[in-house]
């Protein structure tokens, strides 16, 4: 298994106890619960609340081992992968679940100057930049860039980040930074289409946009980002928008090195798989989760397709080992959700049911806490989010870090 994310861990669980040796490889020593990274980026959660040691995970199963390595090459004809130490690891079956990374679409300066919240490190970096920006302006330092936070992309990640930053400004700032006029702190969300949360029903999109505006988010819909500079973003209508921190929350692509692995790739670099999730033309290799796309059409790059795909690929390995035929993968849509801020979220279920507001937020909160990896993660997250939301009016309640 290459990658200990949602797909990789689900595959490992399925193979635990089977008569096979499982080797889990990841470039990081921990699993990251990406859906709550925006909370780390806005100081609501500690990085440790949303990460879980992969060695501890592997240790739960007698037939599973973990190695912290980054896979650099895949040689399917000799059934081996090369890792960053230069060593080769051979396999009988390979399940690739390496996820994706930010796609900058060739927009000038985006890679250099915009930040992402796709990894633990990048979320911590955003948190430190946001807080040090507020600190610098509060101190009245000469030449300080105005605290304008620009989020590029109105999908779930962009909406969640904008909502959390707006709440930090609205509720936390007056007490934590009384010397700072909250009106100087701006949260701008830029989305090139005319609406936020494109995969949701029109009513939920409008609701979300209205709720963000009510929280003071400056929504720039139907305008694209042409260039990102260190201290500003240039929009397609010619406006130079000052920006202390630009957060890139639009578009993902498969890691660049995958293109050297000799596997068929489609849009966004996603590895093409057959109905049973085996890579087209490579019967010993499966690809699942965000990095893969079925020839019948891509699934959304969300946790559920990754979890279900990982489980299915591992079940097919069991079948192949037992000399049986593989089965086609069927995705069970469990719906989509996004949080807008405290007590506010939207949920859309496959049966058409739509929930919004407080009830949706409770559902979002419950699901995210339940799906965290360990009891410790769940308790820490519950405690930190309770402090953030219940004592909201009494201070900024942010977990602080060192300025970069
Ligand atoms: C900020 C954010 C918020 C999100 N919110 C939601 C949400 O609310 N709901 C939802 O359903 N989905 C959400 N998603 C999407 C969801 O997190 C992904 O769809 C899911 O993580 C995909 O799982 P995966 O296993 O394919 O990849 P990942 O979970 O990304 O795991 C990939 C793993 O592979 C490892 N890896 C990569 N390359 C290599 C290599 N060469 N060698 C070794 N290891 C490697 C990585 O370190 C990582 O651990 C969010 C994503 C982000 C970034």
Characteristic terms for this protein:
single chain, 404 residues, alpha/beta, FAD/NAD(P)-binding domain, 2 domains, five-stranded parallel sheet, 25 strands, binds flavin-adenine dinucleotide
Brief overview:
The chain has 404 residues and is of the alpha/beta class. The chain has ten helices and 25 strands. The strands form nine sheets. Strands 10-17-11-12-13 form a five-stranded parallel beta sheet. The protein has a three-stranded antiparallel beta sheet with strand order 5-6-7, with no helix packed on it.
Helicity, as a percent range: 25-40%
| β-sheet strand percentage | 15-25%
Averaged pLDDT = 93
Oligomeric assembly: single chain
**Overall geometry:** globular
Number of strands: 25
Summarize the main sheet. 5 strands, parallel
The CATH first-level class of the largest domain comes to Alpha Beta
Question: What's the gyration radius in Å?
Answer: 22 Å
CATH T-level fold name of the largest domain: FAD/NAD(P)-binding domain
Judged by helices, strands and strand pairing, the structural class is: alpha/beta
Bound molecules: flavin-adenine dinucleotide
Tally of separate domains: 2
Cα(first) to Cα(last) distance is 35 Å
Q: In what order do the strands lie side by side in the largest sheet?
A: 10-17-11-12-13
């Amino acid at each position: 298994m290459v990658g200990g994310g949602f797909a990789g861990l689900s595959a490992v669980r399925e193979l635990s106890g089977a008569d096979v040796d499982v080797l889990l490889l990841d470039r990081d020593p921990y699993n990251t619960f990406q859906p709550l990274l925006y909370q780390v980026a806005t100081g609501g959660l500690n990085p440790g609340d949303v990460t879980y040691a992969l060695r501890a995970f592997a240790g739960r199963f007698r037939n599973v081992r973990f190695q912290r390595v980054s896979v650099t090459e895949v040689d399917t004809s000799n059934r081996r992968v090369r890792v960053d130490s230069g060593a080769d690891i051979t396999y009988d079956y390979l399940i690739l679940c390496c996820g994706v990374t930010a796609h900058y679409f060739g927009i000038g300066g985006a890679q250099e100057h915009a930040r992402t919240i796709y990894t633990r490190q990048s979320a911590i970096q955003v948190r430190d930049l946001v807080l040090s920006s507020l600190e610098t302006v509060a101190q009245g330092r000469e030449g300080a860039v105005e605290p304008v936070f620009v989020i590029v992309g109105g999908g779930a990640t962009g909406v969640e980040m904008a909502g959390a930053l707006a709440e930090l400004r609205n509720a936390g700032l007056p007490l934590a930074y009384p010397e700072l006029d909250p009106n100087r702190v701006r949260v701008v969300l830029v989305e090139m289409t005319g609406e936020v949360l494109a995969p949701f029903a029109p009513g939920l999109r409008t609701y979300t946009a209205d709720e963000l505006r009510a929280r003071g988010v400056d929504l720039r819909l139907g305008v694209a980002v042409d260039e990102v500079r260190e201290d500003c973003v240039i929009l397609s209508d010619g406006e130079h928008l000052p920006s202390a921190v630009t957060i890139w929350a639009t578009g993902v692509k498969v890691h660049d090195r995958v293109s050297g692995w000799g596997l068929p790739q489609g849009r966004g670099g996603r590895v093409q798989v057959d109905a049973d999730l085996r890579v087209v033309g490579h019967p010993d290799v499966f690809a699942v989760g965000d990095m893969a796309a079925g020839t019948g059409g891509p699934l959304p790059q969300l946790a559920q397709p990754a979890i279900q795909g990982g489980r299915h690929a591992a079940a097919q390995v069991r079948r192949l080992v037992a000399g049986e035929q593989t089965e086609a993968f069927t995705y069970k849509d469990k719906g989509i959700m996004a949080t807008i801020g405290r007590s506010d979220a939207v949920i859309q279920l496959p049966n058409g049911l739509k929930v919004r507001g407080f009830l949706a937020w409770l559902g979002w909160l419950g699901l995210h806490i339940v799906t965290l990896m360990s009891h410790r993660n769940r308790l820490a997250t519950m405690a930190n989010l309770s402090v953030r939301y219940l004592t909201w009016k009494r201070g900024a309640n942010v977990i602080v870090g060192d300025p970069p």
